[in-house]
Amino acid sequence: MALQKPSSSTDQRQATVLYAEDNEINVLLVRQILELRPAWKLEVAHSGAHALQLTPQVMPDLLLLDMHLGDMSGLDLLKLLNKDAPTRGIVKVALSADAMPDRIKEAKACGFSAYLTKPLDVMALLQCLDGYLCTNGPDTPE
């Protein structure tokens, strides 16, 4: 299966994705995937506390949040980020090995725009991020 770039270079805009993840292997995987989108910059926070510190500095276009960080849950991090007006409006996508329907429903009810499961489906991640970050408009990813 060959991964493809968006249909034309005008489909992409410059964007920054902040990934909160404490597992370096997962960071490397997402870094490799995002190399398929050269207009996007990946920033990494290795803990929830680091994400809280880095988010207002970077002001990313999208936050990709692991749901089980070493120091807090993704839901806790989401709630803390949503307390501050500048970070409240940033699109937040959950990433977790927990694929239980009640957890997914809870995450979306708390404000996650999408919920992706591990092991990571490369195409699902790209389609989700393309939906929010490409200039051709959001596809409202699941």
Give an overview in words.
- It is a single chain.
- The protein is α/β, with parallel strands linked by helices and 142 residues long.
- The chain has a single domain (19-57, 70-133), classed as Response regulator (Rossmann fold, 3-Layer(aba) Sandwich), CATH 3.40.50.2300.
- It contains six helices and five strands, in the order E-H-E-H-E-H-H-E-H-E-H.
- The chain has helices at 24-34, 48-58, 74-82, 85-88, 101-110, 122-133; strands at residues 15-20, 40-45, 62-66, 91-96, 114-117.
- It has a five-stranded parallel β-sheet with strand order 2-1-3-4-5, with helices on both faces.
- The model is unreliable at 6-10 and 136-142 (pLDDT under 50).
Mean pLDDT across residues: 89
Please describe the biggest sheet, giving its number of strands, its sense, and whether it closes into a barrel: 5 strands, parallel
Strand order in space, largest sheet:
2-1-3-4-5
CATH-defined superfamily: Response regulator
Round the Cα radius of gyration to an integer and report it. 14 Å
